[in-house]
Amino acid sequence: MGSSLSKAMGKIFGNKEMRILMLGLDAAGKTTILYKLKLNQSVTTIPTVGFNVETVQYKNVKFNVWDVGGQDKIRPLWRHYYTGTQGLVFVVDSQDRDRIDEARQELHRIIGDREMRDCLLLVFANKQDLPGAMSPAEVTEKLGLHRMRDRSWFVHPSCATSGEGLYEGLSWLSQNVSSSKS
């Protein structure tokens, strides 16, 4: 009863639920972002082997966020998480110029999969607080995003430890999601 009532209220007041897959190279800040959004505090993390999943409520959207480890040995498993994804949050370590090309290759491999064809793409240009961090414009260029004409995408600067930029990214996702799940 309570479940059907909350679904009905959601339809009346526009509550949405959105499945988010958060990917990126290892040490980009994915888990730190997840728990900053969930707990509003910076947590000490260890490399994610497997995944973390949390629900984050922001405005009228319930984001079901899947944070999957980014080590190269785990990346072939990413495709098992694609089904039903409405938004891909790809996290980039903006200071890691040595691996931005590797990040570009992985991103294009992900979005090239037919299961990910219709999902929104939010890129967090993370670690903006560090010296020498690439700007969002530079991250956009290095990831080759301007060549993507068939998908909605957005690059936003972020700092996972302070939370800067994270909610703006969620706002973009919530404003651009086309269908709500009932």
Automatic annotation (TrEMBL):
InterPro entries: Arf6, P-loop_NTPase, Small_GTP-bd, Small_GTPase_ARF, Small_GTPase_ARF/SAR
Chain residues that bind GTP: G24, L25, D26, A27, A28, G29, K30, T31, G70, N126, K127, Q128, D129
Family annotation (CDD domains): Arf6
Family label: Belongs to the small GTPase superfamily. Arf family.
Positions annotated to bind Mg(2+): T31, T48
Entry keyword set: GTP-binding, Lipoprotein, Magnesium, Metal-binding, Myristate, Nucleotide-binding, Protein transport, Transport
Protein's GO biological process: protein transport
Protein name as annotated: ADP-ribosylation factor 6
Originating species: Moesziomyces aphidis (Pseudozyma aphidis)
A single cellular component GO annotation: cytoplasm
PROSITE patterns tied to this protein: ARF
GO molecular function: GTP binding; GTPase activity; metal ion binding
A Pfam cross-reference name: Arf
